[in-house]
From TrEMBL:
It comes from the Eukaryota. This is Tac7077. The active site is at D113, D115. It holds the Pfam family NT5C. GO terms for biological process: deoxyribonucleotide catabolic process. GO terms for molecular function: 5'-nucleotidase activity.
Length: 310
């Protein structure tokens, strides 16, 4: 084990690089692996990896001469849903409040939608439509995520209005993160590989990347655009993108995409924040055995923890 290399990938796992102090061929060190796992009673974001080391011919050994086995410990704290530890075999171990635990043999690959899952797109768009077109609607009226049916116009006209919205401050500075998303995603990064899979258009790719980096820095390994409802360019189904990622789970608010992915064997968490998304009430999607309804990011975390491979 080379101690001058990262213990685990900081970008994908939220861990920091190990640090070691050396004195010739012998060294003793205390290693800290920073993990943002969250706490219900205060900060507890540091997992410490501790051992006394001796180096003989580059091999870390204990003082009794045996090859070193690592162990991990953490300061006492109460974590909201789980604590993460590194066990002696260097696998991630999740310990729940009730004392039960499981080793993570394989990280879950999780695809995450943007609009209404990471950010409140619709409320910003709806305000723009009211101000620009004097077309007043409450979010409760959006029984389907096909805007032309709500605005009583053609699909082509609705697409044009949305692209006008993209050029305004309503879009550029008016979309705010969904409560709890950033904190939970930081927790999830310890046992999930996270990627964005959005239906957003290529026309707003640059701004979307900037927005994600501002509000969710370093949390996503890949970001994919479906280019749906675009004025030009080729679109890709979410199911195709998720399959190419090898995704185990999709987190999305759209029942159409939920069913599409569930039908090819991908688990879906249908995100209905605070039970306030009328377009999420489709019985056809929620009746599928691979679709599970969740109402906040805390529920997302608990559900994903239950699916972690042992």
């Amino acid at each position: 084990m080379a101690l001058n290399k990262p213990f685990l990938c900081p970008r994908s796992c939220g861990l920091s690089q190990m640090k070691v102090g050396k004195e010739g061929r012998r060294s003793e060190g205390r290693f800290f692996v920073a993990m943002d796992i969250g706490s219900a009673v205060g900060p507890c974001n540091e997992l410490s990896l501790i051992s006394s080391l001796e180096h003989h011919d580059g091999v870390p050994r204990r003082k009794d001469g045996k090859i070193l086995k690592w162990h991990a410990s953490a300061p006492f704290c109460q974590v909201r849903s789980s604590e993460a530890f590194l066990s002696e075999d260097l696998r991630l171990k999740l310990v729940n409040r009730d004392g039960s635990s499981k080793h993570v043999n394989q990280k879950l690959i999780v695809a995450v939608d943007v609009d209404e899952v990471l950010g409140s797109f619709l409320s910003a768009l709806n305000k723009f439509i009211a101000d620009r077109y004097s077309s007043n609607h409450s979010v409760a009226e959006y029984f389907v995520y096909e805007f032309f049916k709500i605005w009583k116009c053609s699909r082509a006209e609705a697409d044009i209005r949305v692209h006008e919205f993209f050029k305004t401050s309503y879009f550029k500075s008016g979309i705010f993160p969904i409560p709890g998303a950033r904190h939970t995603l930081r927790n999830l990064s310890t046992f999930c590989n996270l990627s964005v899979v959005t239906s957003r258009q290529n026309a707003i790719k640059d701004h979307t990347l900037e927005w994600i980096e501002e509000h969710y820095p370093g949390l996503f390994q890949e970001i994919h655009f479906g280019n749906h409802f675009a004025l030009d360019g080729v679109s890709r189904p979410k199911s195709e993108i998720c399959r190419s990622l090898g995704a185990h789970v999709l987190i999305d608010d759209n029942p159409k995409y939920a069913l599409e992915c569930a039908e090819i064997g991908i688990r879906v968490l249908l995100f209905d924040y605070d039970n306030s998304y009328p377009w999420c009430k489709s019985c056809s999607s929620t009746s599928h055995p691979l679709v599970t309804k969740v109402h906040n990011w805390q529920e997302v975390e608990l559900q994903l923890l239950s699916w972690v491979p042992r």
